Amino acid sequence: MRFILLFLLASIPFLSHADNIADCEVVIMEKYNPGDNKQMMEVASFYPAINFIESIYNEDKKIISTINGFKIRALMCRRMDVVPKRIDYAILKSGVPLILSQNFDSSSSGITKIYYKNGKFNYTYSGPDLSDKDIEKIKINLNFFNSQSHGFSEKEKNKQE
What is the value of pTM for the model shown? Predict the structure, then answer.
């Protein structure tokens, strides 16, 4: 019994790295005045995403859409696998793009961005070539995301009017 418990405890850091919400940050664009009479600039700021993610998966809470009065522009998550999962639909349904990477600070890591545009969910990928299996998984999950009810088409139509 002790061996099994020790094994499980030892494997937690490895398993949690794969899809750990602590490895996610929300992105906002804050206005910044550099002083010296220059124009205001927008600067990307990154905040822990735990409260945002909790608001998405907790039906009793209103989904957080701003931090310090600034709109959340994206959710960036570090994962070993840059292929989105079906459980990510709840995040996408919030209207916030999801960006996945093994390591955002490395030029050799893959980066997948999933977003809604022109009436459907799309993705972009940059980095080392994905396997045919991973590309197929992305397409299957995008089809799943697009088959779900989300009301984005109506919101897009209202924006254009």
Answer: 0.78
